[in-house]
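I have been asked to look over a protein record a colleague put together. What it holds is a sequence and that sequence's fold in C-alpha cell form. Please read both lines and tell me whether the C-alpha cells look consistent with the sequence. I do not need a full report, just your reasoning and any doubts. This is what I was given:
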Amino acid sequence: MITGELKNKIDSLWNVFWTGGVTNPLTVVEQMTYLMFIRDLDDADIRHQQEAEMLGLGEYKSIFNEKVKVIYSPDNIQEIDANEFRWSHFKDLEATQMYALVQNGVFPFIKKLHGDKESAYAKYMDDAIFQIPTPAILSKVITKLDEIYVDLNSLKNADMRGDVYEYLLSKIATSGTNGQFRTPRHIIKMMVELMEPTEKDTVCDPACGTSGFLVGVSEYLAANKKGEVFFIKENKKHYMNEMFHGYDMDRTMLRIGAMNMMLHGVENPHIEYRDSLSEQNQDKDKYTLILANPPFKGSLAADTVSSDLIKICDTKKTELLFLALFLRMLKVGGRCACIVPDGVLFGSSKAHKQIRKEIIENNQLLAVISMPSGVFKPYAGVSTAILIFNRTGSGATSDVWFYDMKADGFSLDDKRQPIEANDIPDIIKRYHNLQDEKTRARTEQSFLVNKDEIVKNGYDLSINKYKEIEYVPIEYAPTSQLLAELKELEAEIAQGLTELEAML
C-alpha cells in the first residue's frame, strides 16, 4: 500500500500533466506507464545481468547492447549507442536534448523491443503514442518520477508499478463502472501460494487487467522453483513461451500487462484482446491452473454470451458465467482459485444454485475463504470470498474447508494502513495441512464441512450457515449486593461533602 506522502507526490505529478494541457485521465495514465516502463527497463536489465552472473547462466546480452538509428529529422539521422536510451543516462540531460532523445530515440526503441510482430508486447505497443507536449513538462515528470521511485524503493514494494497504477486508476471516473480494480498485491500472493504453481503448469487469467496474477505466478516460480524452471531447457522454453495466458477487453490494460510480464522476465506471454465470455473464446480443456478476479458488473446481453456457458449456468450474471467458463477452460485435473462476490455463495436464484451444484457434484470444491469487505477499499466495499476447486468432471467433493478471514494485515477502512493483525500466514499454513482441520470445532476460525451437509442446505456456501457461535454467559452479582455497594458509595459521598463544608 502506498503512503499518504507518496499519494501527494503522485497527485503532484498528475497536476504537471494537467497544467501542461494533457487532461484526458486515460492519456495521463498511459504516458506515466510508458515512462515507468522505460525506467524499470533500465533497472530490470541491470538486475538480469547480475542474476546471470550469479547463477552462471553465461554471458548476458543486454537489450541496450546495440547501435540504433535515430531519426531527428529527414536531414538529421544519427546512429547512436542504445545505452544512451537508459533512464539513468538521459534523465540528467538538458530538457530540450532529453525531449528530442526520448521522442525520437527512446520511445521508438521500446515500441520495437520485441521483434516478433505476433508477440503480446509488439501487438499492443504498436499503436502506442508519445503525447507529452513539451520538454519542460517531460523534465518535470522525470524529476518527480525519480522522487516517487526513491520512496517506493525504500518501501521495498515488490510490485511498485502496480501499486502506483492502482492509485492512478482510482482517478479515472469510469474505473468503477467496468470493474477495473486491481487485486491487492498481498491477496494475489496469498492465492498463488495456496495453489503452489509448478514449472509444468499452463496458467490463465481470463480477466487479466495488468497481469497481476500472472506476474505473481512468475515471481513464485522464480523464488521457489528457480532450478526446475531456468536450469532445464524444456521447462525454461515453456515458461517463456507457453505458460502464461491472459485475456482482457481494454487495450490499455493489455499494453500495461504485456510490459509488466516482460519486465518480470517472461519474453512471450499470450496476452490477447478477447471477450472471455463470448463465442470468440473457444478455449476448452486447455489450462492446468486458473487464477482470476473477474469483473462483477451485473448482467450481459444474452446474445453476447457463449452458448456453452449458458448450458452450464443459464444466467446473464458475469460472476456466475465466469465460474462456468473456468470449468470449461480447465483440463481435467486442473485447479482454480478465484475471487467472487459473497452473493455467489448464498444466492437463491436457479442460476446461483446451478453453478454451485455443478462445482460440488460434478467437480471438486476444496475451500471457501471469506474475506472482510474492506479488502478492496478504497475502490470498492463489496464483500468477497475465494473459491478453490478442481475440475474432475466426475465429482470428488468430500469435505469443504471454510475459513473466516478477519484481517489481512491492513486496516479495513479507506486508509488501509498496515496493522499487525494478519490471517494470511495462518490461511496458507492451515490449507496445506487440511488433515489437521478435521478436529477443529465449528466455533473456530476454520473448519471442515461434509458435502452431504452442504447439499442439505441447498448448496449454500456462506460460512455463517455452518459456523457456530459460542456464547459465554456473563454472571452479575446479586441485586442485594449491588444495592449494598451503592449505599456504601452514597455514604462515602455524603461524608466527603460534610468534610468540604467544614472547610468553608
Q: What stands out?
A: The chain has 19 helices and 13 strands.
